[in-house]
């Protein structure tokens, strides 16, 4: 189906959607937001997010209004100010994708008539519609759990549930990807006719990831397989989050020392600028981090490295790009759930190299 950007129709139902935790979690809410905006009449969708994800929320075409959650750090003054803001907005419904007692209490105190959330933990007492999902079983992707909640909300509002939206969930205006590739080519002197493989070796403090040495082994394995198949060697662009730049530079030095074309993505002007840069990637490789899920939302091909914890499986935290554009790797059965060294990097390198057969350079760099 064709996704429609937010139109801000003031006569539509007013919805408040809350996903106020980490960046990757927020990106996996975009399919749900797209589903809400695809219904007819299209509702007015506001989101409540922390300040650090707000720049990306403002880029989302399925959001009409961004409200900032001051969190626990805001103290009583922050809670009172936010409560006043929600009361003034006169929302028709609250959809909480990740519920906490503070948010449940807030929606109840704000007098929002329809309040829907997953039926988990005692925070559900503040909601008058509860959906049993049992997410801890990790039987579905997180973005699908979110989309099911959005569909349940539409049904409660008496709105027709539309056909489910399809990737990309962050559709960029025509020419944006090409402009990002031209910008990076100018900054780094990269040949834009070559495939560009981005690698994000950091973890953001939350995800288990490969070590720098393991990433070097992976890159060299991919290079060797491409050379054997007479396929063009990619340029490797290393990205980093705040405080991770030095580690990324160590990986760059290691790769350059082995004759690999590798460079660091130059500093960007904020999170939204960094996110748009990822649209230039022909493949994005990372642990299950926020940047991996940004790339998925952009429908760029991804290769994700996951632990095997039940709550962090490749299925549960699957990227929301098209199925054919996803690769996922995790420790084998019997290995420790966080034992990323047990992942077969030879097999991973082979599958990543095969990516060029399925998405040749002429497609990915056009």
TrEMBL record:
InterPro entries to which the protein is assigned, alphabetical: Glyco_trans_9, LPS_LOS_Heptosyltrfase
Keywords per UniProt: Glycosyltransferase, Transferase
Matches recorded under CDD domains: GT9_LPS_heptosyltransferase (cd03789)
Superkingdom of origin organism: Bacteria
Pfam family membership, one: Glyco_transf_9
PANTHER family hit by this protein: GLYCOSYLTRANSFERASE HI_0523-RELATED, TETRAACYLDISACCHARIDE 4'-KINASE-RELATED
Protein's name in the database: Glycosyltransferase family 9 protein
Source organism per UniProt: Halomonas gemina
């Amino acid at each position: 189906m064709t996704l429609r950007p937010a139109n801000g129709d003031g006569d539509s139902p007013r919805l408040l959607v809350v996903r106020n935790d980490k960046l990757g979690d927020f990106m996996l809410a975009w399919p749900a937001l797209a589903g809400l905006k695809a219904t007819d009449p299209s509702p007015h969708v506001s989101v409540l997010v922390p300040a650090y994800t707000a720049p990306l929320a403002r880029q989302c075409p399925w959001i009409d209004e961004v409200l900032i959650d001051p969190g626990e750090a805001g103290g009583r003054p922050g809670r009172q100010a936010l409560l006043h803001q929600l009361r003034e907005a006169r929302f028709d419904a609250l959809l909480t994708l990740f519920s906490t007692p503070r948010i449940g209490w807030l929606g109840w105190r704000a007098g929002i008539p329809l309040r829907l959330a997953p039926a988990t933990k005692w925070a559900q007492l503040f909601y008058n519609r509860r959906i049993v999902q049992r997410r801890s079983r990790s039987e579905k992707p997180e973005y699908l759990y979110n989309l099911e909640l959005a569909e349940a909300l539409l049904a409660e509002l008496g709105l027709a549930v539309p056909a489910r939206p399809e990737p990309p969930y962050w559709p960029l205006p025509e020419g944006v990807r090409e402009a990002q590739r031209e910008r990076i080519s100018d900054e780094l002197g990269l040949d834009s006719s070559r495939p560009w493989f981005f690698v994000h070796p950091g973890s953001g403090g939350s995800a288990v990831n490969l070590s720098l040495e393991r990433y070097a082994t992976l890159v060299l394995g991919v290079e060797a397989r491409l050379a054997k198949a007479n396929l063009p060697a990619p340029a490797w662009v290393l990205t980093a989050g705040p405080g991770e730049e030095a580690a990324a530079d160590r990986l760059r030095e290691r790769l350059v020392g082995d004759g690999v074309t590798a460079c660091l993505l130059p500093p960007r002007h904020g999170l939204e600028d960094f996110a748009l840069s990822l649209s230039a990637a022909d493949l994005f490789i990372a642990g299950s981090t926020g940047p991996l899920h940004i790339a998925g939302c952009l429908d760029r091909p991804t290769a994700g490295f996951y632990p095997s914890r039940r709550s962090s499986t490749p299925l549960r935290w699957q990227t929301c790009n098209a199925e054919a554009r996803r690769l996922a790797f995790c420790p084998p059965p019997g290995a420790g759930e966080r034992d990323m060294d047990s992942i077969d990097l030879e097999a991973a390198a082979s599958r990543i190299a095969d990516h060029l057969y399925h998405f040749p350079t002429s497609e990915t760099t056009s």
